[in-house]
Design a protein that fits this description.
This is DUF1835 domain-containing protein. Residues 2-106 form the DUF1835 domain. InterPro entries: DUF1835 (IPR014973). Pfam families: DUF1835. It is a single chain. By secondary structure, the protein is of the alpha/beta class. The protein folds into 2 domains: 2-167, Rossmann fold; 199-303, Topoisomerase II, domain 5 (Alpha-Beta Complex). Helix content is 43%, strand content 15%. The protein contains 14 helices and 12 strands. The strands form 4 sheets. The protein has a 5-stranded mixed sheet, with helices on both faces. Helix 2 crosses helix 3. The longest helix is centred in the N-terminal third of the chain and has 16 residues, at 60-75. The protein starts with a strand and ends with a strand.
């Protein structure tokens, strides 16, 4: 049996527990940077590797090597009687799940049975953030509760992945109006995906808007902000590397929204947080206050060159996020 999981933390606990089979930790960050329907094409992989190195400090050679290694294990899935996908409800995991379902949908399963364990809560945990919160014993209790993956799940995952990897924003809008109920948590996760786009109010996506709101309410250190944003936007499943990248972008001049007081270097894959960074104080600049009030539009002032899946956001954005209606709207 092969178990595919997101995160070394979960993988280590499964190895420690009474879980029969091999463990494959799938290492990717699909909410960040360009993605493509077929992720193995060398030119496209190179573009993604360059982006992840530039934004989060993930060495491109390291990224490419790990991709090839995990794909080799996946290609040999036929040697297992069963494959179990262990995932949770947030955007991070739902995109990973959709990619893997798309991948399996293009291959004959033969005698190998595909199974899915996907959870959005756990008894006794008020704010369920993910499988990493669970103890080894709690994960053991989930073993065997997975459900068989059928054609409907494969088709739904494939449709989601192809929409997310599309450069056509209308595909990202359309998937929200399709029936994705075969994957229980997909629709809510995709709603979070589109809410990351700049809003009609001030050009801030949901991550940036939440950071601004928290600072206005007195949360003013990097670690506190990361923890509070993680709680409020738990459905994103955003990790620390992505958060530091977003925070850095908001503090870069010109058109900085944030002022960071104190000596600091932003953490990334190579550099972990330091005491000096942890003790910095963060406040809104004058522009940050104007954007927070809706007086100015950050994207119009700063411009944008960002990737969310297959979408490259740059130039004039004809689609914006409407926080009041909680949907993307077309700007005439």
């Amino acid at each position: 049996m092969l178990h595919i999981v997101n995160g070394d933390h979960v993988g280590d606990k499964l190895r420690q527990g009474n879980i029969r089979g091999d463990i494959l930790v799938w290492r990717e960050v699909y909410p960040v940077g360009p993605v493509f329907v077929e992720m193995g094409e060398p030119g496209q992989r190179s573009a993604r590797a360059e982006y992840l190195e530039r934004t989060m400090g993930i060495p491109r050679d390291d990224y490419v090597t790990k991709c090839k290694s995990q794909e080799q294990i996946l290609e040999n899935f036929h040697k297992y009687d069963e494959v179990v996908l262990w995932f949770e409800h947030d955007l991070f995991d739902q995109l990973m799940l959709s990619y893997l379902l798309h991948w399996f949908s293009k291959r004959a399963q033969g005698r190998t049975k595909l199974n899915l364990l996907c959870v959005g809560d756990y008894p006794g945990i008020d704010l369920f953030r993910g499988l990493g919160q669970l103890t080894t014993k709690q994960l053991e209790a989930l073993s065997g509760t997975w459900q068989r993956i059928g054609q409907k799940e494969l088709e739904t995952g494939s449709a989601i992945w192809e929409a997310y990897a599309s450069p056509d924003i209308e595909r990202h809008v359309e998937i929200l109006h399709q029936d994705t109920s075969a994957l229980t948590f997909a629709h809510a996760a995709l709603d979070m995906h589109v809410s990351r786009l700049p809003s009609i109010m001030n050009g801030l996506g949901i991550v940036e808007q939440t950071i601004v709101d928290l600072i206005q309410h007195g949360v003013n250190t990097p670690r506190e902000l990361f923890q509070e944003v993680g709680s409020r936007l738990s459905l994103l499943g955003m990790g620390d590397l992505e958060f530091w990248y977003r925070l850095r972008g908001m503090s870069e001049r010109p058109s900085a929204l944030l002022e960071i007081r104190g000596p600091h270097t932003f953490p990334d894959y190579r550099k972990q947080t330091t005491p000096s960074f942890e003790n910095c104080e963060i406040s809104l600049t004058e522009l940050g206050l104007e954007v927070a009030a809706g007086v100015k539009d950050w994207v119009k002032l700063k411009g944008m060159n960002e990737w969310y899946g297959g979408l490259r956001l740059h130039g004039e954005l004809t689609w914006r996020w409407d926080p009041a209606r909680k949907q993307l709207v077309h700007m005439a």
